[in-house]
Amino acid sequence: MPHNPEALPPIAILGAGSMGGAIARGLSRSGLAAGGVTATNRSLASAAELDGLADVTSIALENRPTGNTDAAAAAGIVLVGVKPAMVPELLREIAPALRPGTIVVSLAAGVTVATFEQILGGDVVVLRSMPNTPALVGRGVTGLAAGTRADAAALATARRLFETVGTVVEVPESQIDALSTISGSGPAYFFLVVEEFTKAAIGKGFAEREARLMAEQTFVGAAALLEASPHDPAELRRQVTSPKGTTERAVAVLQDARLDDVFARATDAALARAKELAAGA
C-alpha cells in the first residue's frame, strides 16, 4: 500500500462525546487515520456508540481506568473533548504520559491556550479549536487557533484533521470567542429562522407536515444553490427578487425590521456571554 503523505499520526480523542465522536467518524471515513484513533468515554454505553468504526478503538474508562493516559502516551495528536470544568484535572492526569512534540488540541469552549500550556509544560504543542455541530454530517466549520509553540507544520496537521469533518478557519486565539458567535452558535440561529418560517406557513393554512417540508427544503435547497453558484448571496437574492414583485415586497418588510441590527445585537450578546464564561461567571 503506497504511503499517503496526508496520513495523520496516531490520534487520541479524550472525552469523545457528540463533537469528539463526530471527529472520530470523520477520521474513520477519511482514511487518513493510518496511525489509528483511540477514543475514550466514561461509560460502556457511550463507548459502544463508536464500536466498529474503521481505524477507531473505543475505550470505556469504567472498565479501563488508565484509558486516558494509555491513549495519550501512544498518540501524536491528542484532542481534549471533556467538559470545560474537567479539563485541568484531565491535563494533570495525562501530562506525565505525553511524549515531547505531541500536538494537544482543545475542543473545550472557554479554556485558554495559556491554561493548557501552563499545565502541560514546554514539551508539547497546544492548539485551540471551536468546531460546530454540522461536523456531525461532515459539514462543520472549525475555528483553529495556534498556541505559542505551534509552528506551521503543527497547524497544517491540525487543519488536515479537522478538514475530515468540514472546513477550517485559522484565527488568532483572541478571535475564537467572536468566531463562536458566528459558526459555533450560527446553526441555532438558522434553525430558529426555519422554525419561524414554518410557523408562517402554518399560518397560511398549510398542515404542519407540508409547512415543515416546504420551509426546511427551501432553506436546504437555497444553501445548496449558494454553494454551487459563483454568485454571492446578495446577487442570488436579486435573482429571486423581480422588480415590483412579491418577493421585493417581502424583503422590504424584512429590511424594515433591521435584520442587520438584530444579528449584530444577537452576536454581541453571545460574545458578552462568552467573556463572562471565560471569567468564570
UniProtKB/TrEMBL annotation:
Enzyme Commission number, as recorded: 1.5.1.2
Domain Pyrroline-5-carboxylate reductase dimerisation positions: 173-277
Pathway listed: Amino-acid biosynthesis; L-proline biosynthesis; L-proline from L-glutamate 5-semialdehyde: step 1/1
Record field: catalytic activity: L-proline + NADP(+) = (S)-1-pyrroline-5-carboxylate + NADPH + 2 H(+); L-proline + NAD(+) = (S)-1-pyrroline-5-carboxylate + NADH + 2 H(+)
Domain named Pyrroline-5-carboxylate reductase catalytic N-terminal: residues: 11-110
Keywords: Amino-acid biosynthesis, Cytoplasm, NADP, Oxidoreductase, Proline biosynthesis
Subcellular location: Cytoplasm
Pfam families reported for this sequence: F420_oxidored (PF03807), P5CR_dimer (PF14748)
Lineage: superkingdom: Bacteria
Gene Ontology terms for molecular function: pyrroline-5-carboxylate reductase activity
Record InterPro entries: 6-PGluconate_DH-like_C_sf, NAD(P)-bd_dom_sf, P5C_Rdtase_cat_N, P5CR-like_CS, P5CR_dimer, Pyrroline-COOH_reductase
PROSITE patterns recorded: P5CR
EC top class named in words: oxidoreductase
Family: Belongs to the pyrroline-5-carboxylate reductase family.
Protein's job: Catalyzes the reduction of 1-pyrroline-5-carboxylate (PCA) to L-proline.
PANTHER family noted in UniProt: PYRROLINE-5-CARBOXYLATE REDUCTASE, PYRROLINE-5-CARBOXYLATE REDUCTASE 3
Cross-referenced NCBIfam families: proC
Name the record gives this protein: Pyrroline-5-carboxylate reductase
Gene: proC
